[in-house]
């Protein structure tokens, strides 16, 4: 099944740590493996999925425009005080 694609402002750089990452980028389907990276303008519709039988782990870096759409304040844990500097990826 092809990953759902979305688009927005900015640039993104996914880097694969392990496994195989399927990158649906507009009309293209790419498979990135451990140690490989991609760079693209995220106005192009894009989506990510696992391209192999094992789990895939990857990091994605965003420019400031893309970061605004992918980062939100983390919910405070019940066992600790909220930290305004905490963030979690969406």
Question: What key attributes describe this structure?
Answer:
single chain, 90 residues, mainly beta, Jelly Rolls, three-stranded antiparallel β-sheet, 1 helix, disordered C terminus
Shape: globular
What's the CATH class label of the domain at 1-50? Answer: Mainly Beta
Strands of the widest sheet, in order across it, are 4-1-6
Largest sheet: 3 strands, antiparallel
- Which percent range fits the helix content? under 10%
Précis, in short:
By secondary structure, the protein is mainly beta. The protein has one helix at residues 64-70; strands spanning 11-18, 20-25, 28-33, 40-41, 46-50, 57-62, 71-73, 87-89.
Plain-language structure description:
With 90 residues, the chain is mainly beta. The chain has a domain at 1-50: Sandwich (Jelly Rolls), CATH 2.60.120.10. It is built from one helix and eight strands. The chain has one helix spanning 64-70, and strands at residues 11-18, 20-25, 28-33, 40-41, 46-50, 57-62, 71-73, 87-89. The protein has a three-stranded antiparallel beta sheet. A three-stranded antiparallel beta sheet has the order 3-2-5, with no helix packed on it. Strand 2 (20-25) and strand 3 (28-33) form a beta hairpin. Mean pLDDT is 78; it is low at 82-90.
Topology summary:
Elements: E1 11-18, E2 20-25, E3 28-33, E4 40-41, E5 46-50, E6 57-62, H1 64-70, E7 71-73, E8 87-89
Antiparallel strand pairs: 1-4, 1-6, 2-3, 2-5, 7-8
